[in-house]
Amino acid sequence: MTMSRWLIVLIIGVPWLGAVVLRLVDDRRARLQHFLAAAFACITGAVSVALLFSSSGEAALSLPLGEVFGTFTFVPDAFGVSLSAIAAVIGCLAVIFSVDYMQGEAQLGRYYSFILLFIGAMAGLVLSGNLLLLFFFWEITALCSYVLISFYNDDPNAVKGGLQALIVTQLGGVGLLAGALIIQANLGTYQISTFLAEAHTLPAGVLSLAAFGCLFAAAAKSAQAPFHYWLPGAMEAPTPVTALIHAATMVNAGVYLLARFYPAFEAVPGWKTAVVTVGSVTALIAGIMAITAVDLKRVLAYSTVSQLGYMVYAIGVGGVFASQFHLFSHAIFKALLFLAAGTVIHSVGTRDMRQMGGLGRSMPYARAVFIVGSLALTGIPIFNGFWSKELVLESGAAVGPSWAYIIMLLGAGLTAIYTIRMVWMVFYKPAASEEHYHDAAPYMRVSLGVLAAGVVVGWLLVGPLGRMMERTLPYHHLHGLTLPELFAEAFRGAPLTLAIVFAGFVLYLALRRFAALWDRFDWLARFADMDFGFSWISDRFAGAVQGIAEGARVTQTGQLNWNIFGLVLGLIVILAVLIVGAA
Amino acid sequence: MSLSPVTVIWVGVFCLFGIGLYGLLAVRNLIKVIVALQILVKMAMLALVAASYSVDKLALGQSLAVMVMVADTIVAVIGLALAVQVQQRLGTLDIVELSRLRK
What we know:
- By secondary structure, chain A is mostly helical.
- Chain A has helices spanning 2-24, 30-52, 66-69, 78-101, 108-127, 131-149, 156-187, 192-198, 204-221, 230-233, 239-248, 252-265, 271-292, 296-316, 320-348, 359-362, 364-378, 384-399, 402-428, 442-457, 462-472, 483-513, 515-520, 522-529, 534-553, 560-582; strands at 61-64, 71-74.
- Chain A folds into 2 domains: 152-541, no CATH class; 542-582.
- The longest helix of chain A is centred in the N-terminal third of the chain and has 32 residues, at 156-187.
- Chain A is globular.
- In chain B, helix 1 (5-26) runs antiparallel to helix 2 and helix 2 (30-54) packs antiparallel against helix 3.
- The mean pLDDT of chain B is 87.
- Classes of the chains: A mainly alpha, B mainly alpha.
């Protein structure tokens, strides 16, 4: 018990200390900054791995803060320790990758200190057992995401993307805060464990308000429809940041929230259907948009949105374990894909896939790891994505609505199409230029190698993960799987899924061969390019606010007469209210 | 007709909210933006006190309001210090112009 208490203090304290230290180091001492950031991140990673071995369902650390805030507790249960391990270990690899990737960039102190701040906040978010504390860390992660997306702050696109991400995730934060306050007002506590135990005593209306507030928050944070458009905009961030925050950790916070509160909201009428709808619709439209995008990072962003849709769908059909397992796999293979894409972008100098091609010859290492990640994304056997995606689909086949299951199967086919298109355009298409590009640098190779190994063998951890969840999550009544059970589950649906994936491959090849057929889908492509109108709505909304502001500006004449008139009018109103009130 | 004090306070809360929101939308001078933000924070403080009065926990609301006062003063000081720096370095306080002035 005391052991886990110290580990929790360290897992938040070490990266935050690092964030302060890196702000203090002079920006001209870049080598020292790289070294310090890597050191702090590696220590955090080691602490998070140690924490995996001291998981428990009890609060390990409580700070009583009086009547208003309740007690701030940290609970090292299975969700907490596994997600904080993902955040810290992938964070550590992203920082090591950055040593080469950010070589020669200015303002490294700002870059590294916000990454470290983020790692600590993410660990705090998943370990906290108090709703208010959860909200606190939730907002810090949104802040870090904003700062890091807009890291190149002389690029207007980066500033716009950052602001968009900040506003959308803040909107979600309002949903979470509303849910937390409703729960507090009715139960008198912010403790998540108390809430899960006593949720059934709440009036139905109150509970469903909290449930849909949480779904709102989760959809905004995890880039689910109709809020998915901020994630592609977030691709302006430096690639290691994208891999860490916008693929492996922060975007999972929404899925985590749904999984955490699943036992309480399970019985709310319509909630599970809403979750299934959000997940499956998102998986479908993001899959279509990934097929038409030409920006390498955008394709990966849409694919992240789509895979998050799979996790949300799994929760909606009651497969919390499947969802968490897919989250675990996805974090590893998507971080690998983003970092490999970062290697390519770093040497080619563009993100446009039309200007790439033939890179396989000059970058064999990047190609190898990228293909490993792609196979996992597509769900080809023995790679980790295969097992978890099959598990998600299996849990949906049994209980969920059949239309959603069919959409998810279609989504698997779409995944195959955009993945093979991406690999083809980057590495195999006839080269766009004769230039020879350099392959991954040494530190990049270390990160990529570790992640690729994780993709190949990570799924072997399914047994311990399941046992830990059974042991430490008393309200979820989860049933973990052992390896033989996983084999049985996965291969039950595998022939169907693999046939669809194969059909996707064939369809892509056919579409490339018969250009006329491709043109037939032109309207869909154009519609997908417009983001199915979602970003149009958001732009219109922003435009309307701007218009109102411009309209209101007319009243700011700057003339003293008007101002004095306003003052006197206000005084009269106040006096009138007072006189009427006294009468 | 007679209004209870709490009703008057709630009217004040909504008035302050309206003024603050109007200020944020209509005003372009950085210092005035900070003033508008301050008005919104004052609205929150007043709402805390009014709400705690309605549920008979006045001391709680007042202590929270004092806490907000501390945090909010820090925000104001930092904001104004930034505004002074902006004026000295860039020669303007117009927020639209400032966002166009990117290097």
